[in-house]
Amino acid sequence: MKSMKAAIIYEAGGPERLILREREIPTPEDGQVLVRVRAFGLNRSELMTRKGFSPDVVFPRILGIECVGEVVCDPSGQWSPGQRVAACMGGMGRDFDGSYAEYTVLPKAITCPFTSDLPWHVLGAIPEMFQTAYGSLYLALGIRAGESLLVRGATSSVGLLAIQIAKQAGLTVIATSRNPEKDAFLRDRNADYVLVDDGNLQTKIKGIGAADKVLELIGTNTLKDSLACARPGGLVCMTGMLSETWSVKDFAPMDFIPSTVGLTVYDSGQFRLDSGALQLFISDVAADTIQLPVGRVFGLEGIVEAHRLMDSNSAGGKIVITND
């Protein structure tokens, strides 16, 4: 049996816990497909798992909740070798070994075929970032032209993409960052307004007007303030946990949620990539209608350095690993 390289984590801890090893290439069973991993993006959930904050994940494990690559073997015969596919969530890197490897076996149900001549490092940034931004805006928030959208945590890769998608849809976008020096950066990426986030946005947004929709990417520690930034009848979607805060202590709904303001969440693990929407998005990227916020690109041998960069929150966009 041929072998492959894989980054394996044996115990929780820092980036150095990710160790490159040789492993046998796995064999797909019925309902599965063997994929040659060409590229994958890094995600905060992988950082949380690496730190030991995902109690249901059993080590050793190959992390990685998304990837793009080529079919090597499909036991059903539906997809020919070389077919390009994308995959994300569905238990990847958590319930079973994920994408931090040269090959991976995936449930066919979470893989999505596509066609594209874009470079692998560009394609590798797409699956989870697209799924999260598109799903949060359209499926959870139901954005419409003419509305205003507050993106809290706008300098994250999902935040930067959400700004572009919302502007394409005809919304006014209010972006936030803790760093006042990011004002020009966010305006250059089509944000109409930029607010410095000191944890109390509800006072700052009064000069602009309360938002129709709010995309919360920071976490539960800013959620109450984000709810206060929405207009009566508005809607807030909690999607991200950049602060690594999972729960609200002593949650009292009547005190926490303003009257008539709606609260929802978007969890990409509960939805499969939509092949039609994905293909259209890839076409937009190819046509330069969408500029992907890619920060740094590493090879698999740079996985430890890549995780250190993710820890530092200084990538300036999506971190991508390639096997190309």
Automatic annotation (TrEMBL):
InterPro entries: ADH-like_C, ADH-like_N, ER, GroES-like_sf, NAD(P)-bd_dom_sf. The keyword Oxidoreductase applies. Residues 13-321 form the Enoyl reductase (ER) domain. CDD domains: quinone_oxidoreductase_like_1. It comes from the Bacteria. Pfam families: ADH_N, ADH_zinc_N. Keywords: NADP, Oxidoreductase. This is NADPH:quinone reductase. It comes from Dyadobacter endophyticus.
